[in-house]
Amino acid sequence: MEHSFVTSSTGKLEKVLLCPPVNISLEPIDYISNRWAAAGAQANRDACLKEHASLVQAYRANGVEVIMAEPAAGLTNQVYSRDFGACIKEGYILGNFREPVRQGESHCYLLPAGNGEVADSLHSPLYRRLF
């Protein structure tokens, strides 16, 4: 029988990938961040870390296993739980970010051999790579 890594896009969340926002900064890459940057706003690292810790606690309190990715220097938006690509029954598809400030994030999910480092801890293989 074929192993399926994703059986439902609306089923119970059992495991999630997060990265603590230790390198967070406001980068104008979309409509919302453009408005904040134009107004002179700055990211509040301490507030972001506190909110992230609350999110992790909420996941764990609801029985969700949290896998933490290592923050990489210079990657200011590496905080999201699902931006790296898409999960399908065969594994995951690693995407390629459009904005230059985010493009390095895709490489954080790969080992030199081309296997998914983070996906290994999620027990989900790299199925396709879009770069």
Q: Could you give the topology of this structure?
A:
Layout: E1 15-18, H1 31-38, H2 45-61, E2 65-68, E3 85-88, E4 91-94, H3 100-107, H4 117-122, E5 126-129
Parallel strand pairs: 1-2, 4-5
Antiparallel strand pairs: 3-4
Q: Your description of this structure?
A:
The chain has 131 residues and is α/β, with parallel strands linked by helices. The chain has one domain: L-arginine/glycine Amidinotransferase, Chain A (5-stranded Propeller), CATH 3.75.10.10. It is 30% helix and 15% strand. It has helices at 31-38, 45-61, 100-107, 117-122; strands spanning 15-18, 65-68, 85-88, 91-94, 126-129. The longest helix is centred in the middle third of the chain and has 17 residues, at 45-61. Residues 111-115 have low confidence and may be disordered.
Mean pLDDT: 80
Q: CATH H level: which superfamily?
A: L-arginine/glycine Amidinotransferase, Chain A
User: In the CATH hierarchy, what is the architecture at level 2?
Assistant: 5-stranded Propeller
Task: Choose one word for the global shape.
Answer: globular
Question: How much helix, percentage-wise, in residues?
Answer: 25-40%
Strand content: 15-25%
Strand arrangement in the largest pleated sheet? 3-4-5
Q: In CATH, what is the class?
A: Alpha Beta
